[in-house]
What we know:
The complex is a heterotrimer. By secondary structure, chain B is of the alpha/beta class.
Amino acid sequence: MIRVEGLTVTFHRGTPMETKALRGLDLEIPTGQFVTVIGSNGAGKSTLLNAVAGEVVPQSGRILIDSADVTRWPAPRRSALVARVFQDPLAGTCETLTIEENLSLAAARGRRRGLRLAIDRRSREEFRSRLRSLGLGLENRLGDKVGLLSGGQRQAVSLLMATLCPSQVLLLDEHTAALDPKTADFVLNLTNRIVTEQRLTTLMVTHSMRQALDMGERTVMLHEGKVVLDVSGEARARLDVPDLLAEFSRLRGRELADDSLLLD
Amino acid sequence: MVSSLRAIMGCAALAFGSTGLVVSAAAQEKVFVAVTAIVEHPALDAARDGVRDELKANGYEPGKNLRFEYESAQGNPTTAAQIARKLVGEGPNVIVPISTPSAQAVVAATKDIPVIFTAVTDPVGAKLVTDAKKPGGNVSGVSDLSPIRKHLELIQQITPNAKRIGVPHNPGEANSLSLLKLLKQEAGPLGLQIVEAPATRSSDVLSAAQSLIGKADAIYIPTDNTIVSALEAVVRVGTENKIPVYAADTDSVPRGAMAALGFNYYDVGRQTGKMVLRVLKGEKPGDIPVEGVEITELHLNVSAAEKMGVTIPEAVLATAKNVVK
Amino acid sequence: MNLVAFLGAIEIGLVFGLVGLGVFLSFRVLDFPDLTVDGSFPLGAALSASLIVSGWDPYTATGAAIIGGCFAGLVTAFLNIRFGILHLLASILTMIALYSINLRIMGRPNVAIISEPTILSSFDGLGLAMLYVKPIVAGIVAIAAILLVARFLASEYGLAMRATGVNPRMARAQGVDTRHTTYLGMALSNGLVALAGALFAQMNGFADVTLGTGTIVVGLAAVIVGEALFGTRSVLVWAAACVAGSVVYRLAVALALNSDFLGLQASDLNLVTAILVTVALVLPGARSNLKSMFASARWGRAPS
């Protein structure tokens, strides 16, 4: 379960570039729920994810994962509870390390790393079987540097890395945005499969209205650092892309009315 | 790994390939004197030339019956160590290391080949020899320790009212620190006081000299490479503030220092050359006591003295070997 | 080149191979451009020489030198991590501070240990000439260091350290405390360099405050030449390449010192260094390494 209470994040505070990314955001996600997050540029989607992951420290508000208040936990400590896939396929893996080394890094998430060999025969076997489940033939390329993989392959490996060891929360940050449509579909299917299999509490940011409605069981729309739409169940099932678009233009119209979006 | 091995073998082959070249050149009946210095420097180069000329004056003609080899470590002690190995491996009759680090590197590399060092200020402190009077072993040489007491007496003779002597120096130079210690030892009995002005780089020399304004009645520049390389900065401070500037080396006098009772490194080189000749004639370095500088000479710069507000007494002028107008 | 010069080049090359390993850890593994080595090399020399002169056992003195080097690395890492001072600047600050500290440690700019017991004295009784003992000892130490570094980098913690250098954000997301790995990596790196300094002082009979001049250039040359000649296939090969690169570099210097060869002389040394490194860089196999170096060695990158 994730509970976000009154979260406020301001960048460049006290400078002319001051930006209020989150303005008292509240959100509660029960265990095992898959939530999609949409919103226009600057709505605060990525900031929300970064705050949950611990990369951004909020000025006020609290973040609870299960019953633990993790607001002040640094990112590495939080990684025991939070797994993450980045938008940029380059960001989630180490390109000069091999596939098995990347997997080994992820396999040690949340526990103390010692001087034991990072990769032994047993872990290698496990990585092989996990990779086989991707169906990309990567199980035969354990020793290849990740830099040799395509963007889709890297995102698939990232996803595998994020789910290699148990975590409370999975954060997906537009993780298919940089992929071509076919690869994006593949990665989305993989996402669905893994999330369902492992019953992960998932927060997925997406730029695609279609994905937002098709994936998961609840959709949240952010605007100016707040939740402006929160639908699930019946209400969500009735929604379609045009409805979301209409909602977007309604918000934008309001902005235009108070002159805040003229520069967009 | 095969290609890696091949690369190593290639290097080794290249290395040994040149061995043949050296051996063939050294095979002739020649006296072989190898000289090495830590860095190219006018004084150190002069010492080298002195050694060479002394050998020449005694019938050893470079290129004919003398193989005279010179290497500079370009200021890098690691290179000095490598040069030492190279020279030792070539088996010369005598190795002449110039300056402390070069001498230490050579002495660490051989216990057999005669070593005659020069331009080393404190050979005992540098552990080149255990006893300057009876060195023993394969090492002796010429120390370039300044005749400090004579220097201080010269200051008293020309400027009797100067009681506080400012000494710009680089605390990172071994020689400078031993000089400073000696200066302090000698100053007390003469009723003088030493004021330190440290500068670790040439660019710091000006501010070091400026720090002496109002604190020193005269400035004395020891044989310190860093300070000497930025001598003009000290001279400027002396001229602008009427502080007489004395130097330990005579080369500084034409550059604007008022007076120096010095020696030149060429003479030190000649003196070292004499010692090398003794070794070539069969004496063991261990039996030759370490020598200090023998020839001193007074150099004066009258116009510099005027600018610094000093009139040099006629009696002193008369003893000068060289007077710059 | 004669045998003494050849063995001397091997010995000094192996000793500076430890500098190469240290530079490999900072520049390559951690992607932390670190100039501290210009201070930690003479620090190792100064500490070991001064302690030996004051009667310490040479091995303990060498150990103390390593610890001193580790501490220097920690200071640079601290300046960078705690105060956000740029890598390069933080390391320069430590480097210049070490100049004064080294002078303090020695009490004077040069400490001679020609006649003192050193770790080489343990081999006196074996009947082997010093000429061979020195490169053998240097070789043993260098091989041990290569194996330890390679084994360390293959460990879970070592892998975390490598990830820190390649992609710190990802490393943190995987639970790696990148500050921790940076501290430890910098300590190890400068500890190795100080060990090299301690060995150099004991093998050449003196420690001098100017000993550090250009250490970083030599270390980088070792890494680049090694990578170009021997590749970076695995961590073990890569680490060994850094030491081998240093030996090749020293052999080239020995060649340059040989005025009978190709008309080169001592004053051409720096030119030879520059040419050697350039050749290493443009060798076909080095291209990709070169590219990745410039892609990843962002000297001006904001502190992480």
